[in-house]
Protein backbone atom coordinates (compact mmCIF):
# COMPACT_ATOMS: atom_id res chain seq x y z
CA UNK A 1 0.00 0.00 0.00
CA UNK A 2 1.32 3.39 -0.99
CA UNK A 3 2.14 5.65 1.95
CA UNK A 4 3.08 9.30 1.73
CA UNK A 5 4.94 11.07 4.53
CA UNK A 6 5.64 14.76 4.91
CA UNK A 7 8.26 16.11 7.26
CA UNK A 8 8.19 18.38 9.15
CA UNK A 9 4.54 18.54 10.19
CA UNK A 10 4.94 22.24 10.97
CA UNK A 11 7.51 24.86 10.08
CA UNK A 12 7.87 28.49 11.14
CA UNK A 13 10.31 30.80 9.33
CA UNK A 14 11.01 34.53 9.10
CA UNK A 15 9.96 36.39 5.99
CA UNK A 16 12.49 36.29 3.16
CA UNK A 17 13.92 32.90 4.02
CA UNK A 18 14.29 30.17 1.42
CA UNK A 19 12.80 26.88 2.58
CA UNK A 20 12.34 23.26 1.57
CA UNK A 21 9.38 21.01 2.29
CA UNK A 22 9.87 17.27 2.06
CA UNK A 23 7.66 14.48 0.80
CA UNK A 24 8.48 10.77 0.69
CA UNK A 25 6.50 7.85 -0.73
CA UNK A 26 6.93 4.12 -0.32
CA UNK A 27 6.08 2.82 -3.82
CA UNK A 28 8.01 4.31 -6.73
CA UNK A 29 5.45 3.07 -9.29
CA UNK A 30 3.70 6.39 -9.75
CA UNK A 31 2.26 8.34 -12.69
CA UNK A 32 2.85 11.72 -11.17
CA UNK A 33 3.23 13.70 -7.98
CA UNK A 34 1.38 16.88 -7.13
CA UNK A 35 1.90 19.62 -4.60
CA UNK A 36 -1.14 21.42 -3.25
CA UNK A 37 -1.70 24.37 -0.96
CA UNK A 38 -4.57 24.53 1.53
CA UNK A 39 -5.55 27.69 3.37
CA UNK A 40 -7.50 27.32 6.65
CA UNK A 41 -11.12 26.40 6.03
CA UNK A 42 -10.59 26.21 2.27
CA UNK A 43 -10.18 23.63 -0.42
CA UNK A 44 -6.93 22.58 -2.04
CA UNK A 45 -5.21 24.56 -4.75
CA UNK A 46 -2.85 22.79 -7.12
CA UNK A 47 0.64 24.30 -7.21
CA UNK A 48 2.74 21.97 -9.31
CA UNK A 49 2.39 18.60 -11.01
CA UNK A 50 5.43 16.52 -11.92
CA UNK A 51 5.02 13.59 -14.28
CA UNK A 52 7.00 10.46 -13.42
CA UNK A 53 9.33 11.07 -16.35
CA UNK A 54 10.20 14.58 -15.15
CA UNK A 55 12.77 15.67 -12.57
CA UNK A 56 11.37 19.07 -11.65
CA UNK A 57 8.77 21.73 -12.28
CA UNK A 58 8.92 25.45 -11.59
CA UNK A 59 6.27 28.09 -11.10
CA UNK A 60 7.35 31.52 -9.98
CA UNK A 61 9.08 31.22 -6.59
CA UNK A 62 8.20 27.53 -6.34
CA UNK A 63 10.31 24.64 -7.54
CA UNK A 64 9.36 21.01 -7.06
CA UNK A 65 11.73 18.13 -7.67
CA UNK A 66 11.07 14.43 -7.99
CA UNK A 67 13.43 11.50 -7.41
CA UNK A 68 11.21 8.55 -8.16
CA UNK A 69 13.81 5.90 -7.51
CA UNK A 70 14.39 7.09 -3.95
CA UNK A 71 10.72 7.91 -3.36
CA UNK A 72 11.27 11.58 -2.59
CA UNK A 73 10.06 14.98 -3.64
CA UNK A 74 10.89 18.43 -2.38
CA UNK A 75 9.09 21.74 -2.71
CA UNK A 76 11.44 24.70 -2.62
CA UNK A 77 9.98 28.11 -1.82
CA UNK A 78 12.26 31.07 -2.51
CA UNK A 79 12.09 34.37 -0.63
CA UNK A 80 9.14 33.33 1.50
CA UNK A 81 6.34 35.82 2.23
CA UNK A 82 3.62 35.93 4.92
CA UNK A 83 1.11 35.16 2.19
CA UNK A 84 2.82 31.78 1.73
CA UNK A 85 1.50 30.71 5.15
CA UNK A 86 -0.69 27.66 4.56
CA UNK A 87 -0.62 23.88 4.71
CA UNK A 88 1.25 22.24 1.84
CA UNK A 89 0.27 18.74 0.80
CA UNK A 90 1.88 16.35 -1.62
CA UNK A 91 0.00 13.56 -3.33
CA UNK A 92 1.05 10.72 -5.62
CA UNK A 93 -0.98 9.01 -8.31
CA UNK A 94 -0.11 5.31 -8.45
CA UNK A 95 0.36 3.33 -11.62
CA UNK A 96 -3.03 1.75 -12.07
CA UNK A 97 -4.85 0.80 -15.21
CA UNK A 98 -8.15 2.02 -13.84
CA UNK A 99 -9.16 4.79 -11.57
CA UNK A 100 -7.48 7.94 -10.48
CA UNK A 101 -6.56 7.58 -6.87
CA UNK A 102 -4.40 10.19 -5.26
CA UNK A 103 -2.65 9.22 -2.05
CA UNK A 104 -2.02 12.26 0.12
CA UNK A 105 0.46 13.06 2.82
CA UNK A 106 -0.81 14.79 5.94
CA UNK A 107 0.82 18.06 5.01
CA UNK A 108 3.32 20.56 6.35
CA UNK A 109 1.82 23.61 8.06
CA UNK A 110 3.98 26.59 7.10
CA UNK A 111 3.99 29.90 8.95
CA UNK A 112 5.98 32.79 7.52
CA UNK A 113 6.47 35.52 10.11
CA UNK A 114 6.73 39.18 9.03
CA UNK B 1 -16.52 30.21 -14.39
CA UNK B 2 -17.36 28.96 -10.91
CA UNK B 3 -15.01 25.96 -11.17
CA UNK B 4 -16.07 23.33 -8.63
CA UNK B 5 -18.97 24.14 -6.33
CA UNK B 6 -20.25 22.19 -3.33
CA UNK B 7 -23.47 22.43 -1.35
CA UNK B 8 -24.11 22.74 1.49
CA UNK B 9 -21.11 24.44 3.09
CA UNK B 10 -21.96 23.17 6.55
CA UNK B 11 -24.42 20.62 7.91
CA UNK B 12 -25.31 19.14 11.27
CA UNK B 13 -27.01 15.75 11.31
CA UNK B 14 -28.27 13.41 13.99
CA UNK B 15 -27.14 9.79 13.95
CA UNK B 16 -29.25 7.83 11.50
CA UNK B 17 -30.34 10.77 9.38
CA UNK B 18 -29.60 10.80 5.67
CA UNK B 19 -28.34 13.54 3.41
CA UNK B 20 -26.84 14.17 -0.01
CA UNK B 21 -23.80 16.31 -0.68
CA UNK B 22 -23.88 17.98 -4.05
CA UNK B 23 -20.95 18.77 -6.35
CA UNK B 24 -21.05 20.52 -9.69
CA UNK B 25 -18.32 21.60 -12.10
CA UNK B 26 -18.30 23.83 -15.14
CA UNK B 27 -14.80 22.83 -16.30
CA UNK B 28 -16.01 20.17 -18.76
CA UNK B 29 -13.90 17.60 -16.90
CA UNK B 30 -14.52 13.89 -17.30
CA UNK B 31 -13.37 12.67 -13.88
CA UNK B 32 -14.84 13.57 -10.50
CA UNK B 33 -13.90 12.51 -6.97
CA UNK B 34 -15.13 12.61 -3.40
CA UNK B 35 -12.60 12.82 -0.53
CA UNK B 36 -12.89 13.18 3.18
CA UNK B 37 -10.31 15.00 5.30
CA UNK B 38 -9.77 14.10 8.93
CA UNK B 39 -7.09 15.24 11.39
CA UNK B 40 -4.28 12.71 11.56
CA UNK B 41 -5.66 10.77 8.58
CA UNK B 42 -5.15 13.23 5.75
CA UNK B 43 -7.32 13.18 2.66
CA UNK B 44 -8.82 9.83 1.69
CA UNK B 45 -10.71 8.94 -1.46
CA UNK B 46 -14.28 7.77 -0.92
CA UNK B 47 -15.56 7.27 -4.48
CA UNK B 48 -14.65 8.49 -7.91
CA UNK B 49 -16.13 8.64 -11.38
CA UNK B 50 -13.66 8.34 -14.23
CA UNK B 51 -16.30 9.40 -16.74
CA UNK B 52 -20.02 9.98 -17.02
CA UNK B 53 -21.90 6.78 -16.30
CA UNK B 54 -19.15 5.09 -14.27
CA UNK B 55 -18.36 5.08 -10.56
CA UNK B 56 -15.81 3.16 -8.52
CA UNK B 57 -14.95 2.70 -4.87
CA UNK B 58 -12.00 4.44 -3.34
CA UNK B 59 -10.21 3.79 -0.09
CA UNK B 60 -13.10 4.37 2.35
CA UNK B 61 -16.46 3.73 0.57
CA UNK B 62 -18.39 2.07 3.41
CA UNK B 63 -21.45 4.05 4.48
CA UNK B 64 -21.59 6.11 1.29
CA UNK B 65 -23.20 5.96 -2.13
CA UNK B 66 -22.61 8.14 -5.16
CA UNK B 67 -24.42 9.16 -8.31
CA UNK B 68 -22.86 10.64 -11.43
CA UNK B 69 -25.99 12.44 -12.57
CA UNK B 70 -24.42 13.85 -15.73
CA UNK B 71 -21.02 15.14 -16.78
CA UNK B 72 -21.32 18.18 -14.50
CA UNK B 73 -22.71 16.70 -11.30
CA UNK B 74 -21.51 14.06 -8.83
CA UNK B 75 -23.39 13.57 -5.57
CA UNK B 76 -22.43 11.75 -2.38
CA UNK B 77 -25.14 10.25 -0.20
CA UNK B 78 -25.03 9.19 3.43
CA UNK B 79 -27.98 6.85 3.96
CA UNK B 80 -27.68 6.56 7.74
CA UNK B 81 -25.17 9.02 9.16
CA UNK B 82 -22.82 7.94 11.95
CA UNK B 83 -20.58 10.07 14.21
CA UNK B 84 -17.56 8.51 12.45
CA UNK B 85 -18.66 10.33 9.31
CA UNK B 86 -18.04 13.69 10.91
CA UNK B 87 -15.49 15.17 8.55
CA UNK B 88 -14.78 17.73 5.87
CA UNK B 89 -15.81 16.45 2.45
CA UNK B 90 -14.16 17.65 -0.73
CA UNK B 91 -15.20 17.16 -4.31
CA UNK B 92 -12.54 17.35 -7.01
CA UNK B 93 -12.38 17.07 -10.79
CA UNK B 94 -9.77 16.41 -13.45
CA UNK B 95 -9.81 16.45 -17.22
CA UNK B 96 -7.87 13.23 -17.49
CA UNK B 97 -6.70 10.86 -14.85
CA UNK B 98 -3.11 11.96 -15.28
CA UNK B 99 -3.89 15.64 -14.93
CA UNK B 100 -4.09 17.82 -11.90
CA UNK B 101 -7.19 17.77 -9.75
CA UNK B 102 -9.23 20.87 -8.94
CA UNK B 103 -10.96 20.99 -5.58
CA UNK B 104 -14.19 22.51 -4.35
CA UNK B 105 -14.36 24.55 -1.12
CA UNK B 106 -15.58 21.63 0.99
CA UNK B 107 -18.60 20.66 3.07
CA UNK B 108 -18.18 20.50 6.84
CA UNK B 109 -20.37 17.75 8.27
CA UNK B 110 -21.01 17.18 11.96
CA UNK B 111 -22.91 14.05 12.98
CA UNK B 112 -24.17 14.06 16.55
Explain the overall architecture:
The complex is a heterodimer of chains A (114) and B (112). By secondary structure, chain A is mainly beta. Helices cover 0% and strands 58% of the residues of chain A. Chain A has strands at 4-7, 10-14, 19-25, 30-38, 44-51, 56-59, 62-67, 72-77, 86-94, 103-104, 108-113. In chain A, strands 2, 4, 5, 9, 10 and 11 form a six-stranded mixed sheet that branches. A five-stranded antiparallel sheet of chain A has the order 1-3-8-7-6, with no helix packed on it. In chain A, β4 (30-38) and β5 form a beta hairpin. Chain A is globular and about 45 Å long. Chain A starts with a strand and ends with a strand. The model of chain A has no long low-confidence stretch (mean pLDDT 93). Chain B contains no helices and eleven strands. In chain B, strands 2, 4, 5, 6, 9, 10 and 11 form a seven-stranded mixed sheet that branches. The mean pLDDT of chain B is 93. The chains are: A mainly beta (114), B mainly beta (112).
Sheet with most strands of chain A: 6 strands, mixed
> What share of the residues of chain A lie within helices?
under 10%
Radius of gyration of chain A: 14 Å
Strand percent estimate of chain B: over 45%
Largest interface: A-B, 25 and 27 residues
Radius of gyration of chain B: 13 Å
Global mean pLDDT of chain A:
93
Quickly give the structural class of chain B: mainly beta
Mean pLDDT of chain B: 93
What is the strand tally of chain A? 11
Oligomerization state: heterodimer
Any chance you could write out the topology, listing elements then pairs?
The complex is a heterodimer of chains A (114) and B (112).
Chain A (H helix, E strand, L loop, with lengths): L3 E4 L2 E5 L4 E7 L4 E9 L5 E8 L4 E4 L2 E6 L4 E6 L8 E9 L8 E2 L3 E6 L1
Parallel strand pairs in A: 2-11
Antiparallel strand pairs in A: 1-3, 3-8, 4-5, 4-9, 6-7, 7-8, 9-10, 9-11
Chain B lengths: L3 E4 L2 E4 L5 E7 L5 E8 L3 E8 L6 E2 L6 E5 L5 E5 L8 E8 L7 E2 L3 E5 L1
Parallel strand pairs in B: 2-11
Antiparallel strand pairs in B: 1-3, 3-8, 4-5, 4-9, 5-6, 7-8, 9-10, 9-11
Amino acid sequence: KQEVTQIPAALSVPEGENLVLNCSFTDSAIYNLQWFRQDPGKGLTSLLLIQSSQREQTSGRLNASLDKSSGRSTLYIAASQPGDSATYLCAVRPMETSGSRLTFGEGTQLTVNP
Amino acid sequence: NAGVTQTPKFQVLKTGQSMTLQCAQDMNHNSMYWYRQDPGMGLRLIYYSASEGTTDKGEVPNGYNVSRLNKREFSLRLESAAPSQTSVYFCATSGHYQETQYFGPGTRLLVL
